[in-house]
Amino acid sequence: MGFDWTVPLVAAPMAGGASTPALVAAVNGAGGLGFLAAGYRSAQEMSRQVAETRESTDRPIGVNLFVPGPPAAPGAVDAYRERLRPEAVRRGVELPAVIPPDRDDWDAKLDALLHGPARGVAWLSYTFGLPEPAEAAAVRAAGIRQLGTVTSPEEARAATALGLDALVVQGPEAGGHRATHRAEDRPGPLPLLQLLGAVREVTPLPLVAAGGLGSGAAIAAALAAGATGVQLGTAYLRTDESGASAAHRRALVELDATTVTRAFTGRPARGLRNAFIERHEGYAPAAYPEVHHLTQPLRAAASRAEDLTAMHLWAGTAHREAREGRAADVTRELWRDALR
């Protein structure tokens, strides 16, 4: 099973706007493999992005889906809502009183990828879990290769048993959400290179390393540890084609420490440490996507104000190494540095 790259660098799918068709096309043009982030998007929005990307590159592309999990228990976010209410008053926003079930348009996205306007993508990757066996079989029958994101050997065993084609092994250094298969799980402590070794012991599948890979030396170390390729997210946030906001780009330079928090979404996610996290981290329940929807008005208000003390600023541990410039140039430079 071959990957669609001449350079073994994958542009990570970064939901929320950071991943763009232009970023995917630029990384593809430099020999890498780009993934669109369909998380938080409707099936129609995802299909539009697939079409836009295809206008800019004739090379294979990938799409990432968030796998829906069971809803949180009724009332799981009630106490957290009350805790956040003073923040909402200060921001002049309303917190949602009711949060309906949300499967992230999973069924419609699968249909669009298999039978609709988004059909024909080369790769489909999964975050937050695995598809049902019948769904994985349907994707396989459509000729789409499947990439599961795992954070532990146990998750790797499950993905292998499902018949996926390859795995993204996400270490704790990664920016954004940890891809644990259950929202309530605490991410394991094994650093990426050790995690690669532990996962290699339980699966023969090709492994793509992810987490804290901001330099050529880090990329080379991951490949030497057994990875077939590497996936980069934070490394592309400051590029010309990134959809990251100006405030987020500034924060990557101005702020130092990252931390893992549930405060913004109810799932563990690594971001730049700020006052919002410090105030609320100890109180956020393991309820995703309920907390994500609960805090949406607060996050939107903070982003409009470019308030770095309250924005969700996802970033990996190597965020200070993120480079400005064209994504294609960054891809070539990182690979050149890795070969030294």
Automatic annotation (TrEMBL):
One Gene Ontology biological process: response to toxic substance
An MF annotation (GO) of this entry: nitronate monooxygenase activity
InterPro entries hit by this protein: Aldolase_TIM, NMO
Transmembrane portions of the chain: none
Highest taxon in the source lineage: Bacteria
Sorted UniProt keywords: Detoxification, Flavoprotein, FMN, Monooxygenase, Oxidoreductase
UniProt catalytic activity: 3 propionate 3-nitronate + 3 O2 + H2O = 3 3-oxopropanoate + 2 nitrate + nitrite + H2O2 + 3 H(+)
SUPFAM superfamilies the record matches: Inosine monophosphate dehydrogenase (IMPDH)
UniProt cofactor(s): FMN
Family: Belongs to the nitronate monooxygenase family. NMO class I subfamily.
Name under which the protein is recorded: Propionate 3-nitronate monooxygenase
